[in-house]
């Protein structure tokens, strides 16, 4: 093919370099390509039942049955999503803490979609500002905010012992390094990747610090119900809102409803009054319209159907509690199995961590060895998806961990 001058155009895409694999989802790609039959994938945060499956919850099946019978259309949703879904999100996330006319809520494709919309809103409406993220944090946080051109800075979080919260360091960074107007990214519960959350007294201090320093709370709420309970896990948000009039909360229903691939989430921006909330809502809609236009319908309809029906809600609450309890039991089984190896490997500190993940303290070399020698995939930071462990494979998993610790 020739251009209008009769010469051959250069091949534009030939100079594109290959991007590195994603630090979390890239591991599942490598896992799937691994031919070993005894391989284990404990990387991505997905719950698995005792048979190793990621189940569809019974309440979800029941809601889908109702949708199949009653759904009238597959037409577009409004740009900001379905009204009943948005109301359900507000009740779940905020309880009775805030009057709904002060909250702008927009249905999003998953928690990541909510975070990216938050990034887009901050970059467009609040510049200049920086976003402060914990060290460590979810492997995708930096990329999501940087993609909208926002500078991402780090505050201390995990202490040098790799087992506890560096609360003093965190406060020092927020008070001496962050500037008025910056946003502080916090994990409402089940901190990813460490599983280490502030205590309720510490949340009060964080809330007060943000308010005194004029820092905007930007809260990632991806694991509601996986820590201590649905309302218990929202206590951090309530503490923040007691001292701060404004906040952004990005929540996800991937984990707590097992709706991973349906991409169901929301961004809620709490404003000072109803007028501001309505202007914020209009800006969120503007940003989304030129991005993905409007959210996918199916997953949000499932959540709204469940949360709109008392019977399905209580079924969901007990299915969620069963997942939470089983993860806790797996964590305990891991600790006792490591003790039983008799090599003095004390992972008792994992019992203080909560949620889907545990931070093992394994270094990059040990993580690589786990993969190459044993076909076990965990995230490079040493994060283990406890919710993916299997009772039946605990002995071999712990033997592999002991092996990489000793060699
Ligand atoms: C994780 O941290 O493994 C999950 O939040 C899934 C993801 O998108 O990374």
Low-confidence stretches: none
Helix content: 40-55%
Q: What ligand species are in this complex?
A: (2S)-2-hydroxybutanedioic acid
Helical run tally: 13
Distance between the termini: 58 Å
Radius of gyration: 22 Å
Note the quaternary state here: single chain
Q: SS-based structural class?
A: alpha/beta
Largest sheet: 7 strands, mixed
Overall geometry:
globular
Could you give the order of strands across the largest sheet? 2-8-7-6-5-3-4
Q: Would you list the SSEs in sequence order as H and E?
A: HEHHEHEHEHEHEHEEHHHEHEEH
**Average of pLDDT:** 95
- Assess the beta-strand content as a share of residues: 5-15%
How many β-strand runs? Answer: 11
Give a short summary of the structure:
This protein is α/β, with parallel strands linked by helices and about 400 residues long.
Q: What report would you give on this structure?
A:
The protein is α/β, with parallel strands linked by helices and 407 residues long. It is 42% helix and 12% strand. It contains 13 helices and 11 strands. The chain has helices spanning 25-33, 58-70, 83-94, 110-125, 141-146, 167-176, 200-213, 235-243, 274-289, 298-307, 310-340, 364-374, 394-406; strands at 40-41, 103-108, 131-135, 152-156, 183-187, 216-221, 247-252, 265-270, 357-359, 376-377, 383-385. The strands form 3 sheets. It has a 7-stranded mixed beta sheet. The protein has a two-stranded parallel ribbon with strand order 1-10. Helix 7 links the parallel strand 5 (183-187) and strand 6 (216-221). Helix 7 (200-213) runs parallel beside helix 8 (235-243). The protein is globular and about 65 Å long. The relative contact order is 0.16. The mean pLDDT is 95. The site of (2S)-2-hydroxybutanedioic acid has 6 residues, from loops.
């Amino acid at each position: 093919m020739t251009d209008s001058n009769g010469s051959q155009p250069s091949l534009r895409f030939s100079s594109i370099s290959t991007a590195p694999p994603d630090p979390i989802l890239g591991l599942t790609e490598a896992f799937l390509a691994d031919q070993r039959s005894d391989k284990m994938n404990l990387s991505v945060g997905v719950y698995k039942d005792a048979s190793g499956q990621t189940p569809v919850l019974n309440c979800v099946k029941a809601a889908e049955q109702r949708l199949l019978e009653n759904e009238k259309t597959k037409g577009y949703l409004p740009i900001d999503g379905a009204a009943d879904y948005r109301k359900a999100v507000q009740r779940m996330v905020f309880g009775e803490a805030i009057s709904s006319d002060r909250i702008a809520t927009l249905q999003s494709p998953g928690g990541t979609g909510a975070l990216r919309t938050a990034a887009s809103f901050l970059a467009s409406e609040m510049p200049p500002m920086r976003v402060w993220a914990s060290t460590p944090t979810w492997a995708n946080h930096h990329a999501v905010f940087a993609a909208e051109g926002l500078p991402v800075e780090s505050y201390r979080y995990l202490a040098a012992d790799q087992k506890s919260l560096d609360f003093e360091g965190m406060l020092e960074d927020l008070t001496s390094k962050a500037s008025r107007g910056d946003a502080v990214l916090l994990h409402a519960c089940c901190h990813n990747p460490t599983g280490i959350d502030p205590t309720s007294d510490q949340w009060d201090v964080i809330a007060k610090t943000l308010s005194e320093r004029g820092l905007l709370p930007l809260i990632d709420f991806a694991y509601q119900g996986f820590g201590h309970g649905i309302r218990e896990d929202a206590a951090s948000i309530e503490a923040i809102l007691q001292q701060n009039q404004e906040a952004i909360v990005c929540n996800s229903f991937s984990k707590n409803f097992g709706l991973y691939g349906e991409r169901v989430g929301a961004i809620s921006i709490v404003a000072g009054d109803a007028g501001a909330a309505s202007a914020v809502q209009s800006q969120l809609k503007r940003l989304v319209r030129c991005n993905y236009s409007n959210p996918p319908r199916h997953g949000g309809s499932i959540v709204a159907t469940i949360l709109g029906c008392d019977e399905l809600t209580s079924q969901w609450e007990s299915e969620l509690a069963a997942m939470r309890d089983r993860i806790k039991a797996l964590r305990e089984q891991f600790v006792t199995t490591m003790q039983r190896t008799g090599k003095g490997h004390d992972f008792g500190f994992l019992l203080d961590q909560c949620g889907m993940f545990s931070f093992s303290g394994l270094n990059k070399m040990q993580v690589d060895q786990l993969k190459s020698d044993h076909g076990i995939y965990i995230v490079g930071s040493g994060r283990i998806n406890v919710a993916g462990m299997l009772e039946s494979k605990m002995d071999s998993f712990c033997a592999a961990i002991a092996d990489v610790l000793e060699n």
